Amino acid sequence: MATALASGIVPATATAAVAAPSPAPAPIAAGAGAGAAAETGTAVQEGGPLVVPVGEDAPVTTRFTVTLPASVTGRVTAGLLLPMPGPSAGNDNLPLADCSVNGGPYERCGWQYESAEQPDSHNDGYTLSLTPTRAARTLTYDVRIGSDNHAVLGRRAGVLEMKDEGGNVVATGPVVLHFVRGTPTAWQRTTVHARDKKGVLWQYEGTGRADRPFKTPTRVGGGWGAYTALTKLDSTTANGWGNLVARDKAGVLWYYEGSGNPAAPFKPRVRVGGGWNAYTAISAGKHGLIARDRDGVLWNHPDAGYGSTKLFKPRVRVGGGWNAYNLISTIGDRVVARDKKGVLWSYEPRKHAPGVERAPYKPRVRVGGGWKAYDVVRGTGDVDGWSRSDGIARDRGGRLWLYKDSPNAARVQIGWGWNIYNAIV
How far is CA 61 from CA 50, 75, 247, in A? Predict the structure, then answer.
């Protein structure tokens, strides 16, 4: 097994054939006397390597046809020996697999480093234990496999081994699974919300596809024209999670908690408190909600934390001079601010430490000029799949642009006609 798995993960572009494992010592056939040797059978993966989409796509099936030596009798076991990212790589979510033998019902197959029947003494891979059965000249295994964990991405080559009751290898053959990016699961796909001029809020669910990043918008509900400011406290996702706050015309701030229901993504609003008309800009921050008052002072409203009856702790003064900016927003964990010349500046958050609520950001870093072209700049979750937090910006012609992972990224147009909305969040 160590020889077969030594190469680990083969790059997806590789064309090299998968080598069969080095010949093992001749096994002792079940029921044979000491020293009696028997030939080793074969295991063939029909159709070659199996392409497994990673995400919310349906599982796919690969078939193995095993030919055993005629001398093998009794109970036999099978295992797929494959290199997989283990706990040392921060992964404890291996692909799910169901197994069927000889056309029988599917049963859940389990991954493990080693077992009494399928040891992995070199710790260089996982064993997927297939359904045990009685020996026959020909056996057929169907393995249905799927994954939503991007850590398994790549081409993984290993072996299928059959063992008899004595633990002797009686059949073997190469196996290849090629895990590729599929459709990200709902919790990995972001949603963007936009309010039209009638006060109706619409939800754009991300698809995870770069060529068509959003599904057709769905109506969340009316009455959102009552608010003068909307901002999300964290990224909203296609499974209905994520929270936002909204300030009404009287200066009262309201909290909308994610419901977990994509069709109705927010629970009924809860009153946070009044006096928020004192601020000319409100945005999410790494350590809570940030807000600029009319004198240009930036205030941090730290998150009160789990279990608190309040949403925020008392506000903390960050510093003055923020009237130099005509736009303050957030992309990822960074606050971005645009000055009057159209230059965008980025403020990276400090790590949690004593005093971080009073000085939550490092000194600003210049991103670049030309941002005067936009009337909306917002951070989102992952728009087109398989990365981190993205940023979107709407120009004055209504075109929507994506900044992948960072405001420093090259922009990509992902929509048009977005000037029908007076708020995008």
Answer: 8, 25, 52
